[in-house]
Design the sequence.
């Protein structure tokens, strides 16, 4: 699954220093719940995860564990990041095994990619490309 979620109101809260600690922490949450984190990356206002779920964990449960656990950890560990929050929702897109390499490269190149497009445009393109109907009023909180 290729999962995408942003900070609340797409605020630029993920500093390089925070990302260097946050991404491995998310990896620890994933391991604890037998979720394989194949790749993680992002930019200051959102992250992308490429994960493989065990049959015992739904995507909604995985996102609850990862987002909730990492947000709590940021608040407990970094008082200077007291404003840190994830957006309420997330995007989750299934990929075939043949797309793992392409998706991994896409996640690795987020900084370069976002010199050309913003998060909202990127996310809407994912929804459109995957034929997912949406109402803009409900996807960006």
Sequence:
């Amino acid at each position: 699954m290729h999962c995408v979620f942003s900070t609340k109101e797409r605020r630029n809260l993920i500093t390089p220093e925070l990302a260097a600690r946050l991404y491995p922490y998310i990896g620890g949450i994933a391991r604890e719940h037998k979720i394989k984190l194949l790749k993680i990356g992002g930019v200051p206002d959102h992250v992308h995860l490429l994960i493989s779920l065990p049959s015992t964990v739904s995507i909604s449960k995985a996102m609850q564990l990862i987002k909730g656990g990492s947000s709590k950890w940021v608040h407990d560990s970094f008082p200077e990041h007291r404003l840190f929050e994830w957006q309420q929702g997330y995007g989750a897109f299934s990929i075939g095994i043949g797309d793992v390499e392409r998706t991994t490269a896409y996640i690795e190149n987020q900084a370069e990619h976002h010199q050309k497009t913003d998060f909202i445009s990127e996310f809407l393109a994912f929804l459109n490309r995957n034929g997912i109907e949406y109402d803009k009023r409900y996807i960006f909180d």
Summary: The mean pLDDT is 92. The chain has one domain: 2-139. The CA atoms of residues 106 and 113 lie 8 Å apart. The first helix runs from residue 16 to 32.
